[in-house]
Write a structure and sequence with these properties.
heterodimer, A: mainly alpha, MetI-like fold, 14 helices, 0% strand, B: mainly alpha, two-stranded antiparallel ribbon
Chain lengths: 276, 299
């Protein structure tokens, strides 16, 4: 009886998890199999495995040439803004975490509050303010915005990482005559390396996936980021579903591969950004 | 009179922290400070007949009189329904995974995958899956429920629930991940004692897991409420653009269209101010949630 109940409970659990897991991964499967079909094969059977897989759609995506350009733009914009924000936030977080000064607590609270302000609130004044400065439709403009938007979460996360380092370490270094900069770069940064990795993952994922700012601030076709470009590509070729799915799958691939290689860091980063 | 501050400053004033926070403060002033001040000012400036601008509340009264604004705000409010659904689902899945059932690592990876995919990627795919001959309708037809087949994203009455399902689909994996991480630090003895007392699965879930996870659940709920109110632009834009008509418009789409398609700076600014105020309510809650965490020394 008890054995039977345990068996039933186990079956129920696996049934639940299997159905959720299949649903979770189904869109990826659909992207991939659709992208390997010709348009006529797709019309005949949307969901099955491709009877005769073809790479024509991928060839067409590369012949069009924009997806690779957009991919490079995304790499540029993401790395530049994440690097800028990380450097700026490292100094700020160190000051807040380790140097007592008036306003430190207020600044940290401010960061937490700013973390949830949506881009939609900020884009119009930024656009109107950037226009006379010639920063609209430039990488510099968009990099500044992204860097600024991820500074609050970066400071917040780094403060909590820095605070976990033992105080004795700082005292010892100071007695040995190390300067503040020396302490920061020879002690704090190396010891917080795992924290930096998680922070960079969270921020890179956010910038890479962001759409609204990318649409508004990079409007030239050859300047677009991958995600903004993808929405345009989809519009141009909406009648050729396999082609759109090939472009979509290619757009998803970099993050998907990074996630599968470094799942630990993604999980740790996203959880730390939230719970810490 | 002047001697005291001079002595103080010589002994205590240290410019280092201010130099260190300078760049961060400058970036924040540019990206958050300036825009917030400017939307407040612009929202009270209305164009006059002569082509100038005058201080008035006309933008706000125009917004309030616009049915599309109410439709958009109503859609954001409707999306809030997704928060309890995804929270409950994520808790359940996390609890099952936490029992380390066979293959739990694989399940965990799969469940988390949608959250890694970018919204435009998911949006592009669901446009087809929810299409007239998409997987949902095909499954319905294959099971003899063809009468229920719908144009999920093309019908004004179904489009918002359909978008909601996609948001839940992507965001719930994040909840699973958060809850699972927190469960790992729940004291195992609590479960062992409960099992000795004969508590079943549900009792343990209800009286140990949920209370122990209270603060992280609260945090997830607040984050997702904020998401539903003010971070859904990419979902809507990539699936419907706010259509058909204005059926799936949300406040972000409303701001974006007024700002860049209609060039109505005053209107867009007024709604941005309203959205900021709505979000601020949750910002305050968020500050309390985090503060509580800090006080209890939880990670």
């Amino acid at each position: 009886m008890s054995l039977l109940r345990r068996l039933a409970a186990s079956v129920a659990r696996h049934a639940l998890m299997l159905s959720i897991a299949i649903a979770a991964i189904y869109p990826v499967y659909y992207m991939l199999v659709t992208s390997l079909k010709t348009k006529s094969a797709w019309t005949a059977d949307q969901f099955g495995l491709p009877f005769k897989p073809t790479l024509d759609n991928y060839a067409a995506v590369f012949a069009d040439g924009r997806i690779p350009v957009w991919l490079l733009n995304s790499v540029l914009v993401t790395s530049a803004s994440v690097i800028l924000a990380t450097v700026v936030a490292t100094f700020a977080a160190y000051a807040i975490a380790r140097i007592p000064f008036t306003g430190a607590t207020f600044l940290l609270r401010l960061m937490i509050a700013l973390m949830v302000i949506p881009p939609a609130v900020l884009i119009l004044p930024l656009f109107l303010g950037f226009q006379p400065l010639g920063l609209v439709n430039t990488y510099q403009g968009v990099i500044l915005i992204y860097a600024g938007m991820i500074v609050p979460i970066s400071v917040y996360m780094l403060v909590s990482f820095f605070r976990t380092l033992p105080v004795e370490l700082f005292d010892a270094a100071r007695i040995d005559g190390a300067s503040t900069l020396r302490i920061l770069f020879s002690i704090v940064v190396p010891l917080s390396a795992p924290g930096f990795v998680t922070l960079i993952v969270v921020n890179a994922l956010w910038v890479w996936n962001e759409l609204l700012i990318a649409l508004v601030f990079l409007q030239d076709d050859n300047q677009r980021t991958l995600m903004a470009g993808l929405t345009q590509f989809k519009g141009h070729f909406s009648v050729n579903e396999p082609l759109v799915m090939a472009a979509t799958f290619l757009s998803a691939l970099p993050m998907l591969l990074l996630f599968l290689m470094g799942q630990r860091y993604f999980v740790r980063g996203l959880v730390a950004g939230a719970v810490k | 009179m002047t001697a005291i501050p001079r002595v103080r400053s010589r002994r205590r004033f240290d410019a280092t922290p201010y130099l260190f926070i300078g760049p961060a403060v400058a970036l924040i002033a540019l990206v958050y400070g300036y825009p917030i001040v400017r939307i407040v000012i612009d929202s009270f400036l209305a164009p006059t007949a002569s082509g100038g601008k005058t201080v008035s509340t006309a933008n706000y009264s125009n917004v309030v009189a616009d049915p599309v604004f109410w439709k958009s705000a109503g859609n954001n409010l409707f999306l809030l329904i997704g928060v309890p659904i995804m929270t409950a689902l994520a808790l359940l899945v996390a609890a099952v995974l936490f029992e380390r059932i066979r293959g739990w690592r694989v399940y965990r990876t799969l469940v988390f995958t949608p959250y890694i995919l970018a919204v435009p990627v998911i949006g592009a795919t669901f446009v087809y899956l929810y299409g007239f001959n998409g997987i949902v309708n095909t499954l319905l037809r294959d099971t003899g429920l063809g009468g229920l087949a719908q144009d999920w994203l093309g019908s004004p009455s179904l489009v918002v629930p359909s978008i909601l399902s996609v948001i839940v689909y992507r965001e719930f994996g994040f909840g699973v991940m958060l809850f699972l991480a927190r469960m790992a630090s729940v004291n195992v003895e609590l479960y062992e004692a409960a099992m000795l007392d004969g508590a079943g699965w549900w009792a343990r879930f209800r009286y140990i897991t949920i209370p122990q996870l209270r603060s992280v659940i609260g945090f997830f709920v607040v984050i997702e409420l904020i998401t539903m109110l003010s971070w859904v632009f990419a979902y809507v834009y990539s699936m419907t653009g706010g259509g058909p008509g204005f059926a799936s418009s949300v406040l972000e789409i409303y701001i974006w269209k007024n700002a860049f398609a209609y060039r109505a700076v005053g209107i867009a600014s007024a709604v941005a101010v309203l959205l900021l105020l709505a979000t601020s309510v949750f910002v305050i809650i968020q500050l309390f949630v985090r503060k509580g965490d800090a006080d209890t020394g939880e990670e």
